[in-house]
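Hello again,

I reread your note about wanting to compare the complex against the isolated chains. To keep things tidy I'm splitting this into two emails, and this first one only covers the full assembly. Below are the input lines as submitted, including protein chains and any nucleic acid or small-molecule components. They are followed by the predicted structure of everything together. The single-chain runs will come separately.
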Amino acid sequence: MTLLIGAATIGLILALLALGVYLSFRIFHFADITADGSITLGASVTAILLVHHTAPLLATAAGGLAGMIAGGLTGVLHTKFKINGLLSGILVMTALYSINLHIMGRSNVPLLNEATLASQVESLGLPFWPSGELLVAGWRVSLRDLMMLGGMFLLVSSVGFTLHLFFKTNLGTAMLATGDNQQMIRALGVNVDFILILGLALSNGLIALSGSLLAQYQGFADVQMGIGMVVWGLASVIIGEALVGTSRIGLLITGAIMGSVLFRLLVAIALRWGLNPNDLKLITATFVFVALVAPGFIRKLKSAAPATPAAP
Amino acid sequence: MLEVVDLLKTFNPGTPNEVRALRSVTLRLEPSSFLIIIGTNGSGKSTLLNAVAGTFLVDTGTITLAGQNITRWPEHRRARLIGRVFQNPFSGTAPSMSIAENLALAARRGQPRGFGWTLNRRLREELRERIRSLNMGLENRLDNAIGSLSGGQRQALTLIMASWLKPELLLLDEHTAALDPKSADQVIRLTHEIIERDRLTTLMVTHSMQQAVHLGDRIIMMHKGQILHDLQGPERARVRPEDLLRRFDDVRRREQLDPAVAELLQQRYV
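Full-complex prediction:
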């Protein structure tokens, strides 16, 4: 039970990553690899602020803000300096590796003895369950895990709902249209460069927020924690799209959140059954490859199939 | 009023692919006038339209619209004053968004996009009323993705979108060229109606001599980045499609001759 609750909590935390990847990859069709750096940036900024006894909420917000700046920078490189999108992301991601090391001062910052959002959320439940443990369906579960799961559910639902509302505003609709048809939205008076920079800032802000929360939940920030995260987010988005099977934005946002939780649960179960953790990224990458290629391949097979001969 | 003075634009300067697309183009368009631009392929007619729209900045020259010098304005800023319909029916709309969302985006052309709701009940009613006049039954499909519509329907909607906030200048770039004849006729009828109703200043590029003769109050013919003929007033009123075709033939014939020979022939026979 603890395993499932832990997996669901991490799934919810990484749902923010999935939402960020959804924004850049699905809305702007922009393969933004900054994500790998900005998730660590969120974690490292929050970790170092927590070590210096900053209020957890403030430290978390600062982590998200740092991600927004990184995303905005990728946007500026792409729009103002006309650097290819993928390369812009690679440049910022590479630079972030050194920046994260500078921020943390070393490659790993433990947070086990610091006041974090996780410890604060746990303390909210202590007056009601002073033992720090609960019985759930006959299983003994730690209060910290359960409170964190509830807290993340509320936070991620609110972020998803806010994002859904945002896409119903004039600015949000302009952002959707920028991803759909730049020529058209430019002719309607929208500054496409600004929208792209804003969108990438928003995307990486969410991703860094995810990193910040992940560090606080796991109890450490590590300079390597971002490797392959963009593919993880993409896998969640693809699973989410398969789950909701629609192009409506509200459902796609819900799908990305559900996809992240489901993917994390599947991974937890697979690891429990003996999957070598070293193979995890290889399997994730293969899954995303298959999910991206399969629809086109199936279409090709269908169109190549010989027509049924007409009856004589 | 649109005033274009001495526009010059060279693409890929200093390379083997150098193209002098606009060579000192000067043009003055009175308010509510409807100018048709014709010309051979590569004559610079679409380039002139794009220069006015701000797709690229010109090398030299000035563009003034509604009393404002817009020569250095970026494209999105010029969109406050200019409505535009592209040749490709798929270029003017966002395919995965609904008809209502597309129209709502156009209803705020050139205005700041903030956190106000894109659609509300009043705007939806207004959208419904406006597209009812198209007689395409689209007023009941406001929430359908615009990408599910035919090219003709999309181009008709793009035209409505471009003219929604009565632009200072409407640019039409061969906007019926990619449509089947029936849809093209419908869109041309709609174009005529909207321009007449709102008395819009319009610049339209076309390859159709019929459209050139039956629409608009002035025709310019471009060739090699320059204005070759400017037909207005009684001369424009008399012109027939055959006259325009003959002028095209003249250009082609002149192109094939050595300039010295052409001059000699002209001196001898004309």
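For quick reference: Chain A has one domain: 2-293.

B.
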